[in-house]
């Protein structure tokens, strides 16, 4: 087994309690083990105080902005207070708008919707699809990242100056490599050329302090489900004017001030872009996660994740054939995300074996960043391990032992390639612990005509 380096081998407990920390899962070999979730970059477990908060608010749950009853009044107030809390968490300016969205994809889609006509948007090729595809509805200029951040910024500057771009769209931290971008320099660069900067903070927000007022970032987009608040809300925070100048993103109830038979007066922002009944539970959960993370402090979060990441990287280094992916030689900071290829191994088969034989959840594939993976990984796919405030050193060590075993000796079970990826065959595990599939099967077979 690869042994973590001596500098990183003392035990590290989870920093904050998360729901499901003790969940056990069955293995194909018949044992039951504690589940180790190391795919926090895809979606994070819920913080216990977030779920407690949701449980409490459900006692008062009512319609937001739509009712006269006490529950409705409490719900409306909580929704608006949650909006403010999210703004505080990202360091919003006093006149910034905070629009509650479904997630980061939705938030960036909203910004794309309100972008002034004929705008040019400059972005890097390293982006997640959520920060790449929406800009194709405008004039999109794609800049290939250079081997150093300094040179990459230079290329961005040339592209912005040459295109008269109105917006630069960058990720705060790569969802593939965890590398963090210098937001203050990027904001300066954008403003020098009369452009604005939007930061896709889906990865950055849960792990580093964001201060958009101090760094000069114009817009930030984030997702609750990556911020330990998996109740279906995200946010777009930033300059109000473009949002005020555009028609509703999702026309309907709540987005209007007045509707005639053939005309409409839109409500002011943020209501204008929050058509339909607001997601109170999602917004309140997200705000509570912001409160809890701010309470423990960005320094403690960073220290916790750095210690575990060093342990993870040391373990990866010890596995023959593992090569870690990175974009830049000089990224000043990295989140606790490691993507790597394993020479001579099918990545899908490795992750299937980690799940089915060891109870460990990681991700393989292209991570919704196809252009970046095509560039960094010769076979086009990789494996990604990511962690957060609920991760412990025991989790990392379990992963290290399991990866070393799978790489050294291959899977111990048999697997078949299916449309959804590699599947253990046979699979004796009960994958329907809620018995819903069984119930649906019973109900649909009861409806079938007797033959
Ligand atoms: N941006 C980055 C950097 C991401 O990692 C992700 C999700 O993985 C997204 C955007 C999209 O987030 P969501 O699926 O919550 O909209």
Rounded mean pLDDT is 96
Helix content: 25-40%
How many DSSP H or I helices? 13
Distance between the termini: 58 Å
Strand residue content = 15-25%
> Helix- and strand-based class?
alpha/beta
Q: Main beta sheet, described?
A: 7 strands, mixed
Ligands, ions, cofactors: pyridoxal-5'-phosphate
Structure description:
36% of the residues lie in helices and 17% in strands. By secondary structure, the protein is an alpha/beta fold. The strands form six sheets. The protein has a seven-stranded mixed beta sheet with strand order 4-10-9-8-7-5-6, sandwiched between helices. Strand 18 (415-418) and strand 19 form a beta hairpin. Helix 10 crosses helix 12 (393-409). The protein is globular. Bound molecules: pyridoxal-5'-phosphate (PLP). The site of pyridoxal-5'-phosphate (PLP) has 15 residues, from helix 3.
